[in-house]
Design brief:
With 813 residues, the protein is an all-alpha fold. It is 72% helix and 0% strand. It is built from 26 helices and 2 strands. It has a two-stranded antiparallel sheet. Helix 17 packs antiparallel against helix 19. The N and C termini lie far apart (185 Å). Keywords: Exocytosis, Transport. One of its GO terms (biological process) is Golgi to plasma membrane transport. It comes from Phocoena sinus. Component of the exocyst complex involved in the docking of exocytic vesicles with fusion sites on the plasma membrane. It holds the Pfam family Sec15_C.
Amino acid sequence: MERGKMAEAESLETAAEHERILREIESTDTACIGPTLRSVYDGEEHGRFMEKLETRIRNHDREIEKMCNFHYQGFVDSIELLKRGEAQKLKNQVTDTNRKLQHEGKELVIAMEELKQCRLQQRNISATVDKLMLCLPVLEMYSKLRDQMKTKRHYPALKTLEHLEHTYLPQVSHYRFCKVMVDNIPKLREEIKDVSMSDLKDFLESIRKHSDKIGETAMKQAQQQRNLDNIILQQPRIGSKRKPKKDAYTIFDTEIGSTSPKSEQDSGILDVEDEEDDEEVPGAQDLVDFSPVYRCLHIYSVLGARETFENYYRKQRRKQARLVLQPPSNMHETLDGYRKYFNQIVGFFVVEDHILHTTQGLVNRAYIDELWEMALSKTIAALRTHSSYCSDPNLVLDLKNLIVLFADTLQVYGFPVNQLFDMLLEIRDQYSETLLKKWSGIFRNILDSDNYSPIPVTSEEIYKKVVGQFPFQDTELEKQPFPKKFPFSEFVPKVYNQIKEFIYACLKFSEDLHLSSTEVDDMIRKSTNLLLTRTLSSSLQNVIKRKNIGLTELVQIIINTTHLEKSCKYLEEFITNITNVLPEIVHTTKLYGTTTFKDARHAAEEEIYTNLNQKIDQFLQLADYDWMTGDLGNKASDYLVDLIAFLRSTFAVFTHLPGKVAQTACMSACKHLATSLMQLLLEAEVRQLTLGALQQFNLDVRECEQFARSGPVPGFQEDTLQLAFIDLRQLLDLFLQWDWSTYLADYGQPTCKYLRVNPVTALTLLEKISREMKDTSRKNNMFAQFRKNERDKQKLIDTVAKQLRGLISSHHS
């Protein structure tokens, strides 16, 4: 029941709502009926509303029909009335009115037609303007593109082309001029591509021509940095660590990530005036405008041909690298040749290193490393070849400094340069050889120009000057009054100072090679040993072996070498001081100067002995004995007197020589003189001699013995020097005293009076006397009283000769 009541209540409520809506529809303006109808459709009973609406319409139709039926007769009456009275008149008025209206409306129709045409034209113009407004941006962009192409702004032109193709042309693609533009777009891209490549080629060519300028600037920067480091450190770089790489790119202001290159100019190389050495050197990269590379890289990247561009760039740079690494044939002649070669290499790699750090992938580290390995091998090979032609040590030293600067510059940019420093160690050996050649000439000039006389000193100033040049101390000499003399000649301080200069020259080469103090010390000592044992020794030997060398010079050379030998310890200290390496801390190479000077001194001594003997031989060549004379002389031969005088004066010069040297020279001279006199006596060409000639010869030997007894050189024991003539003395005594019985009886006994007489020598001399006696006997055969005495003496000689032959035979058996 309750549900039925509720449904009935809802039905009544809905019916009342529908009635309200119908009343609103009937009373509301048609334009405002929308909200009313919407309320119907928002509800759920629009079906029932439609039924009520149909019922309301049918009711209104019935009312209209009733109303028409009620007024129909009045309408018919009105029509009839109209027909009877006013119909014709009304017709005429209507016709007249129509005619007037037609006449009056004709102009209006014409005006309306004109208006129609104007409206049509206006609509066409408006449509045209709209289309033109749509096309104008396309034309403007195309004009902008042509202007950019004309001004060589290729990267912005490419961007404009992209906007034109993808943004503007699709909006007006149905126009024929747009189709022409579309067809030209590939051609424009190729044109941009070709022009940018042409700019790149110009840039590469300009870079190739100006690599030496770029490299020169980079090396100046490195030199300035090294000078600054040296000023800060205030100490030599020997043993120091290599400099870390510094930021070489702070002066670049190019950002690759930007949408356009930093510059639209294609200059490639900027014009920069040569900087003075004392002015600030511009950055190497300040000389270069890399915008052509960046633009071309951007353009090819946008065009999807980046790989083609990278391959082309790398190929061209490899070709340029090979050209740069080809040294000129005359590079070794001047330092400028090497400098230009290094500048070009540095310039090449400065550019490549900058490209590596300012582009993304145009070149990579592997490519750079490959180029550097090739450059390093070719550069080292070229330096080995050309440096071998260099004979000037100053040029080699300058080359070394240039190579160090070259290596330091490239090391700043991150390139490994250890092989260059290894090669410098090879050049160091060559430098040592050129130094040795140079110092060979220096020593030769010093030795040739020396007067081989003790240095005279006339004042304290001169004395201190010499002592300052050469470490010499002699208390006795210091006490002597002026004038006085140093024992050595001028070549001693000169040679000593030149050895120090050589050591300094070796030290110069070791600078900046990143060597330890021990390595530098060892290098200097080895080079100095070569100087002493090879160069100086050879120079001394050449002087000693000269044909015109005199005994005075040889004596002075012995004295000089003795003092130079004593100075070797000071050279050791000098090397220790400049290298800061103590011999007791590190095992170091010893100097061989002592051996060098000893060898030179021994050679000079031998040369003195030889020279003395040659002088003696020259005097002996003046000997003119009359071996057939019968006169008994009473004085020594003139040549021998002169010879003894020469020997006395010569040995007087030996006062400054070591005692052993003087004694050996004197003993050697006496022995050589005795041997030469013996050979003269026994010479085969002398087939006969008389006892008178033998007596004269005996006088000469006595003169020699007198010289030996006089002690020409101190230090000999009594009669020691006379022993040089003992063979001659015993032989002459045997013949002059004719003491054959004693000789034959005591022969072979240790106490024999004629122990030094050889039977062969005695027999030779006896045969010469025998021949002379036989020849004399034949000439004097008319004197009978002489014949018997001669025969008896001849028989005695024959008997002695026979016994001597027996002694000789028994000795050999």
